[in-house]
Amino acid sequence: FVSSSSSSSSSSSQHAQKPFTEAHWQRLLQHTEQRAQQLQAQQASIILYACAKLGRKYQPGFISSLVQQVSLQQLQQLPATGLVQLVWALAVLGCNPGPAWFSSLFAACDTQRSKFNQHQLTSLLWSLGKLQQRPPADWMKETLASLRPALPALTPTELSNAFWGLAQLGYRPSRAWMQAWFAASSWVFPQCTPDHLACIVASLALLRTDPNSRWLVLFRRQVQQQLQQLQPRHVATILCGLAKRRNPQPPHWVALLMTHQLQLVQSCRPADVAAAVWAVPKLLYPTASEWASDPRNVPVVRDLAATSLQMLHRCSVSELVQLAVGFSGLRYYPGAHWLKVHENAVAAKHTQLSDANKQRLRVALRRMWADG
Prior knowledge:
There is one protein chain. The protein is mainly α. The protein is 69% helix and 0% strand. It has 20 helices and no strands. The chain has helices spanning 4-16, 22-34, 41-54, 60-67, 80-93, 99-111, 118-131, 137-147, 156-169, 175-187, 194-207, 213-225, 232-244, 251-263, 270-283, 288-293, 298-309, 317-329, 336-348, 355-371. Helix 5 runs parallel beside helix 7 (118-131) and helix 14 (251-263) packs antiparallel against helix 15 (270-283). The radius of gyration is 26 Å and the shape is globular.
C-alpha cells in the first residue's frame, strides 16, 4: 500500500528531475571557466581528468584556463595519483603546456617515485609518448628500472601501452630490459587483441628492435589464431612493422595474411593495400619473385593488382610509391592498363613528390615495364 502523500511526493520528485541537456552542459563549462582562477591545483586536475574521461570536445581556452591553475610550484603538491591522472588527461585532451611545465612535472615525479605502482608507470609512459615529451635520460632509466620487476604482472594493454610510449619517445631500453619485456609479452599473447598485436609490431619498427626467433614464432601463432578478428588496418600494420625490421617470415604465413586482406577488400583503405604490397617483398627476401610466381600465390598477387587498380585515383603520393615499389619487388607485371592509370595518378600529384620518391618510382616502373 502506498499512501497518497508518499505517492504525491514521489510524483513531484520525478517531475523535478529534469534531463541534463546540452544547454546545461554548456552552462556548466562556462561557469567552470569563469571560476577557474579560484580553483586549487588538485581541483583543476580532477576536472581535467573528468573532461578527458567524458571524451567530449572542448574549446582550447577552457582547457588552458584549467591547466594554468596547475602552476609549476603546485605540481609538487599533487599526490602520485593526481600527477598520473593529470598527465593522462593532458594527453587525451591534446594539451601540451610546454617544456618548462614538463621539467617541473619530472621533478615532481622524482620526489614521489616510490609511490608509483606499475599501472601508473605504464600510464605515464603512454601519456608522455602521446604528448611527445621525452624526459631526461636518467629519469627514463630510473622509471624503467622501477617498472622492470613488475613486467610479468602487467596486462596486455599495459605492456603494449608502455612499449608504444617508449617508441613514440624514441627511447630504446637496455637489452636486459627488452628481454624481460619480450618474455612478459610472450606470456600474455593468448590474451592479446588484434589492436595489441598491431601496436606491438609498430612499436618494434619504431624502436628498431628485433625480437628473438621464439618470440616471433609465438607472435605468428597468435596472429594466425586471431586471423578472423583482424581488420585490414591490423594486417597492414603487422606486415609493415615486420618488413621495416627486415625480418623474413614464412611464405605460407605471409600468403595467409594477404589472402585474408583480400577477403576484406570491401573495408580496405588504399593505405591498407599499398602497405601490404610494399611489405611482402621485404618479408620474403630474397625469394619474393619465386613466391609471386608460385601457382599457389599467383591468384593472390593478381587480385592485389586488380584491387589496387580500383584505388589508384584515391591513393596518396606515398601509397602510389609503395604500390610501385612493392609490385616491382615481387617482379610482377600488373599490366599496361594498371601502369597507365598509375602514371596518371602520379602525374596529378607530381608536385608532391620528393626527389627520393621520384627516384624510387623511376626504378620501380622501369623494372615493371621490363618484366612485361
